[in-house]
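#onboarding

Welcome to the new folks! Below is a worked example of what a typical request in this channel looks like: someone posts a single protein sequence, and someone else replies with the predicted structure as tokens. Don't worry about understanding the tokens yet, we'll cover that in week two.

Example request:
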Amino acid sequence: MAEPQRMGAPATTEAARPAARSRGAKPSAGARVRRAWEKLSPLPGGRWLFSRAVGFMAPYTGTIRARVVELEPGFCRVEMRQRWRLGNPFGSIHAVALLNLAEEASGLATLFALPDDARGIVTGLAIDFEKKARGTITATCRTDPPRTAPPEPVGHVAQVELHDAAGERVATARATWTIAAAG
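Example response:
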């Protein structure tokens, strides 16, 4: 005898639940990033809108209000303007805001390059500061993550360089990503 159902609740059976879950499978983060970039970037104001969407998907990252300038598989360029809220007592951009910018660049470059059946999560961050960061800072990441989902999780390091408006390097960061098959 079946268990009583609450009024209005859909009747489901144990056999139907796995099929329902697989039908509504959520696309990978990389697939969502690619789809959003391809749809928005050609539009007037589309890069700005994409940048805000990234901030919505990753709220802490959104606090720096970075603007994605270029994005393709394994490459990302992101800019961040100096604002009072990102400052430190020395009149420059706070170290953690710079690391947040580097993580965003590495994440977009890495995730954009991953196949749909792979996922990645940052598992380590390191940064070396070379000079005070003032004005607009540009973070550039070139990386080559696995092009196929690995059978076992693998580590991948994405290098990011941060430059000021004069083109002088202010910091170099390394983001370690663990890449694995989705699921």
